[in-house]
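Blinded run. Sample ID left blank on purpose so nobody reads anything into the name before looking at the predicted structure. Input follows.
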Amino acid sequence: MKRLVITEKANAARRISTILSDEKQETTKVDGATVITFTRGGDEFSVIGLRGHIIELDYPEHYNNWSSVPPEELINAPQEKLVKAKNILSAIRTLSAEAEQIIIATDYDREGELIGLETVRLAAVNMENVRRARFSALTKMEVENAFDNLTLPDAKLADAAEARQIIDLTWGAVLTRMVSIYSGQLGRNFLSVGRVQSPTLRLLIDRHQEIEDFVPDPFWLIKGSFATEGFQGEHSDNPFWDKSEAEKKMDGCKGVDKAKVLSFSVEERDDFPPSPFSTTLMLTEANRIGIPPGLAMKLAEDLYTSGFISYPRTDNTVYPKSLSLKGVLNRLADSDFSKEVAEVLDQETIRPSRGKRMTTDHPPIYPTGVASSKKIKGDKWKLYELVVRRFLATVAPAGRVEEKSCTLDVGGEIFEAKGQKLLFEGWRRYYPHYRFTENLIPNLENGSMVDVKDLAMEQDETRPPYRFNQGSIIQEMENLNLGTKSTRHDIVGKLYSRNYVQGKNLIPTPSGVALIKALQKYGSHITDVEMTARLEQDMEEISQGEKVLDSVVKESQAMLSDAVDVMKANRNEIGEEIRKALHEQSHIGKCAECGGNITIKRSRKGNFIGCDSYPDCTKAFPMPRSAMIQPTEEGCTECGMPVLRVIRRGQPPQEQCVDPDCSSNKEMNDLGKCPKCNEGTVRMLFSRAGKRFAGCSSWPDCDQTYPLPLRGKIDVLNEQCAECNSPVIGLGERQQCINPECPTRPKKAAKKPKATTAKKGKTVKKTV
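Blinded prediction complete.
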């Protein structure tokens, strides 16, 4: 039998062919497309890889003229499918004419099902000959099992994905054109509005507004230090919102040097492992270790198609019974984690942790193959190690924690103290990304007296809520049913690329704020989370066979039509609000040379800062590298040019003149004379990736560079090292030569291995 296999990408085609052919395959060209051929069990296989969606949904050409087609016409306008890779589709037609069976082997999810089905339909193959291979990992066992147990394609799953395509194209095209036309932002400067993107941006702006409007309330805490060990306790009525009441309680404790132990208890509890990785959990944890969600998803897909991890798009947090956990561990036995794997395998029984979500399409993300730190480098290795360590944690034993609680009487005032100690590391030994803070309390007896070492009343204040970062906003999107596991990281990436948010903690820009405020006032339900979540539920019901594509599309068109009517009635107000915000966002200050406006300019080579009076005034300056900037409305005391507030990750905000050659900037960044050329000055610089380093001002004639600490403030001391003549910098209370090879630099001591001090046990509660 001749079989044609269609995969989603070329590397998946190579991987599947290698597995099914036992590495005995040939490569040929059909109509210019690469095809892999081999024989298996008497059958002739031809495998061809797509490039994701080789078919693109769009409007007919004449609808692309923004000036002649009113945006509202797009709501019910026809959409057509355009072939992006004609040679691949031609090859599929050629091969399918001879094939007795066509096997769709794309990723098993909504998008993968649509990619496969729309391709074979457009190729006009005989659908009776089409089958589906479903797998969750590109391992030998999974792939062979999938091809031995072929199923029929799932048209309902594909319809759900197609409904999303149609709805997102319609909403995005209509709303983007309306807002861009109303605000005069056309061409490359158009403003993007999306069905999921805009409600997500609203979440960030609502949080931003909450932080901006937050007014801290003062409160007071009474704390004490007790016994020889000096363990800490707090007044049982903390916090006090009335200072006089706190002072009254404090007065009742003054002069008391002994506290009576009213109660003391010791309890041991299990410290349970974290749940297995879903897509959202993996992206959130990757963000915590410095890999942004967009990059993490790309790396995860590469690891999947290379056979190192299971399918990375899943909501599941419960390992299926069919997955052999010991089999996964045995495969890792000869990996870089062999010691940890041996320890986990040494358990009498393996009882994996469970999350709250259980689905049947794919298992949680787990390692399927052995990668080596010698072959895989950088963030890809960091992500693979994260997946391995998370898996080990989920099948490792629970840790053991000892908790102590005591109540103390200090002159009639009640104080409480709580302590915790890690008795048995358990899963924490393999997953070091969650910090455990120990707070030790000695064993005490009821009725005993302990010394009161110190009592103090401290003032504090309430704090605003935390800003979202890329990981936490993706979690919030999942909680609110915004987008899908496959699209959330892309949505966040678009917010950055459209300059609607900046910085690590997703701070909205003025244009992002103005866009959402205008849509909230004049755009009906466009920014409502509930509206988007409702459409997400509709698409889920399509995949379950409870709704059909056409009815969901018509429902979304009616919702969009209502919003468009409201926006058309308020087009002037929408345009004015957005134009005003865009001006504020680009305005930096006044030019000291001609009095014109200094603003952020866009060019093909990137953004820069320049005077609006060009060409009469040619003042222009580069943007600070890898930084978020904010105008200060102040002028430089040295040259009069605007002063910027520059914010970089891991460093305190810094105010500096917009002119990098200004003497005020040299004072902040010139660290000292270059010891290599004795002519240039060693300056603090930043790479495109945001890494701080020092380099000679005479570059490229002098290539002297030094690494600098990536975090914290650096003080310029204008001193040279007595040993190597390199500049010396201030790091808080200490000074350090910037030359890492300098004899004055201390050598790092080798880390000692952690010792396990106790064994796992059952919960025991003891009251003394």
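Unblinding after everyone has recorded impressions. The longest strand covers residues 258-271.
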